[in-house]
């Protein structure tokens, strides 16, 4: 087994695991997860009640126009920060990835949310969304890393070391 820059390669299978990238994806999931829970179990139901077709369409529109852009932007911004790109680099991540991902979002989530809002009982909606989010996060990871992983550069010399010489 070979180990390089946070990746372990199993030479027998050729599978590479980038644990740093996996850790960043985990942190984004942990940070956005509670907000997802609030959105689907409390917020959207407070403002748009019911499971009739008209109410379901309103919930889907609210999800696509409020939650979709917010979660998409938060993901790319947070990943940029976790990679050490700084605020401007994180904003660049959002600018580069938002539109193509948001267009796919409109194909993936509305049919899923129709099922969710129409047929899934409210107490299971978060579980339903989280199950689909596993697939969605695979796509997000692909979009985020399709040009390769960003290499975090460590500072050459720290300020404290310079002042103690």
Automatic annotation (TrEMBL):
Protein's UniProt name: MPV17
GO cellular component: membrane; mitochondrion
One biological process term in Gene Ontology: mitochondrial ribosome assembly
Family: Belongs to the peroxisomal membrane protein PXMP2/4 family.
Keyword flag Membrane: yes
Compartments, record wording: Membrane
Transmembrane portions of the chain: 21-40, 60-82
Keywords in alphabetical order: Membrane, Transmembrane, Transmembrane helix
InterPro entries assigned: Mpv17_PMP22
Ranges in coiled-coil conformation: none
Membrane topology designation: Multi-pass membrane protein
């Amino acid at each position: 087994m070979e180990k390089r820059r946070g990746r372990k390669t199993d030479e027998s299978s050729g599978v590479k695991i980038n644990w740093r990238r996996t850790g960043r994806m985990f942190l984004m999931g942990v940070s956005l997860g509670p907000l997802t829970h609030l959105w689907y179990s409390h917020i959207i139901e407070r403002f748009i009640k019911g499971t009739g077709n008209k109410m379901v369409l309103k919930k889907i529109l609210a999800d696509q126009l409020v939650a979709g852009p917010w979660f998409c932007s938060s993901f790319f911004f947070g990943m940029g920060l976790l990679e050490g790109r700084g605020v401007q680099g994180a904003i660049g991540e959002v600018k580069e990835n938002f539109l193509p991902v948001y267009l796919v979002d409109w194909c993936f989530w509305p049919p899923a949310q129709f099922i969710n809002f129409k047929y899934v009982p409210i107490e299971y909606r978060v579980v339903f969304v989280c199950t689909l989010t596993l697939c969605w996060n695979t796509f997000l990871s692909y979009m985020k890393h399709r040009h390769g992983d960003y290499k975090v550069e460590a500072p050459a010399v720290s300020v404290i070391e310079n002042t103690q010489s």
